[in-house]
Amino acid sequence: MGNFRDWLTRLMYGRYGVDQLYFALIAAYLVLLVVNSFVRSAIINILLWVLVIWMIYRVLSRDIDKRRMENERFLQIWEPVQAKASLTFRRIREIKTHRYRKCPHCNTMLRLPRKTGKHTVKCPCCSNKFKVQVWF
């Protein structure tokens, strides 16, 4: 077993390896695999093979700078989506105790305690005061 591990270590030396884009490609692969098990489409099958080849190419690539730039471009798209989803799940989880409102001046999302009625709120970022109505 040690010989295989040594061989794998020597193989991967100087190669790019895995990153966030790799894990996203695996997730896309798994989703397409499940869809293909129900739909049985040749196009999805080709997409699955393209994803596998692309993942292997990225992992074994020695051009680390290009792979890093690909990952950075992916993260520029992914991080805002992830932040929006995280905020949405947090709002759902805290729906019984807090309400979220945007500051009209700087668009910062404020987390307010759930107290019904009209309130005057001061934004911690821009110190703008504005009125908020919490219904329920």
Structure description:
- It is a single chain.
- With about 140 residues, this protein is an alpha+beta fold.
- It folds into 2 domains: about 1-95, no CATH class; about 100-135, no CATH class.
- It has 4 helices and 4 strands.
- The strands form 2 sheets. The protein has a two-stranded antiparallel ribbon. A two-stranded antiparallel sheet has the order 3-4.
- β3 and β4 (about 130-135) form a beta hairpin.
- α2 (about 20-40) packs antiparallel against α3 (about 40-60).
- The protein is elongated, with a radius of gyration of 24 Å.
- The termini are far apart.
- The model has no long low-confidence stretch (mean pLDDT about 95).
Quick recap of the structure?
The chain is an alpha+beta fold. It has helices at 2-12, 20-39, 42-60, 64-93; strands at 98-102, 109-113, 117-122, 129-134.
Reported for the largest beta sheet, the result is: 2 strands, antiparallel
Number of strands: 4
* Distance between the ends: 63 Å
Strand content: 15-25%
How would you state the average pLDDT, rounded? Answer: 94
Rg result: 24 Å
Total number of helices: 4
Low-confidence stretches: none
Structural class: alpha+beta
Residues in helix, % = 55-70%
**Spatial strand sequence of the major β-sheet:** 1-2
N-to-C series of helices and strands: HHHHEEEE
**Structurally, how many domains make up the residues?**
2
Global outline: elongated
